[in-house]
Please model this.
Amino acid sequence: MSLNIYFSGSMRGGRQDVDIYYTIIEQLRNYGKILTEFVADKNETYEKVDDKTIHDKDVSMLEESHCIVAEVTQPSLGVGYEIGRAVAMKKPILCLYRPQEGRLLSGMIRGAHNGTTFIVIDYKVVSEVPDILSKFFSNLTSS
Ligand SMILES: O=c1[nH]c(=O)n([C@H]2C[C@H](O)[C@@H](COP(=O)(O)O)O2)cc1CO
Model:
């Protein structure tokens, strides 16, 4: 069975990391279908549909997903909300974070790490991501 993967990354929160999202999504393709490719699309004009449509569509994609992979370095209300909804839906979650000088990841994300269903992993460079994903998905498919 192919996995439905919900990738979550900042949009209105700031697009500084869009190239990193793209690289992560390219890696995620090895594990299943990405429901939210548009998050890594530089040209995405995400203003074209109304906000209720965005919200309802994303919640329904979260419901359809088998797991959530979120890049949480660039703070985003939408990403935090999606993670909270995914926890309530009991979906496995992987949060990827690049530690930043003078900035700390929210305690509500770091503090949710439980080593099984909610994983927070720090990385320095995107070349570390394939190994992180490999471990996450091998645990996911063996559990
Ligand atoms: O147009 C959109 N489409 C959409 O799917 N989202 C979702 C996907 C992203 O993982 C997340 C980003 O939230 P924010 O825009 O608050 O940074 O919300 C967010 C927006 C804009 O808020």
Summary: The longest strand covers residues 3-8. The radius of gyration is 14 Å. The beta strands are 3-8, 32-34, 67-71, 93-97, 118-122. The chain is about 40% helix and 15% strand.
